[in-house]
Design goal:
Length: 146
């Protein structure tokens, strides 16, 4: 009897099936990790945008000499001296004189309010797919009636 070296058709099918299953599991793990990474990256980005907006406003308030005269609100536009902060088309802008700076993207709400000498600024970001939006609020004492 002659002996033939090689694999049978059944052995090849089983090997290919096992390889496919292992490859499918590996790709699924990779895609799950990648989606999680992208969601976290987006979340960090929008949270950083909200913090940049609040830090910039806080810095402008610290540099202002006459807060009681320089600070005012016009709807949702915060005015500090010749600087205006406002939301337009999902972006918060800082307008100083004739120049405009972009402070934060993917913003859904920018809500400044001034009550009894306290300036409250709320910033809400656009959520990632089905996640909840990120909301950050800062309260600053700017003087006036206590």
């Amino acid at each position: 009897m002659k002996r033939v070296n090689g694999f049978t058709l059944i052995e090849c099918i089983i090997t290919f099936s096992l390889f496919s299953i292992v490859l499918l599991i590996a790709m699924n793990l990779y895609l799950t990790g990648y989606r999680s990474y992208r969601r976290q990256e987006y979340q960090v980005d929008v949270e950083q945008n909200a913090r940049v907006i609040l830090n910039r406003i806080s810095e402008t308030l610290r540099r202002s000499d006459k807060l009681s005269e320089d600070l005012s609100l016009s709807g949702t536009v915060l005015i500090i001296g010749d600087t205006r902060y406002y939301l337009q088309n999902g972006t918060v802008y800082e307008r100083i004189g004739g120049g405009t700076n972009t402070l934060g993207l993917r913003i859904t709400r920018f809500e400044p309010s001034l009550v009894n000498g306290y300036l409250t600024i709320g910033v809400e970001t656009l959520p990632y797919r089905e996640d909840n939006p990120f909301y950050l609020e800062q309260v600053l004492f700017v003087g006036g009636d206590e």
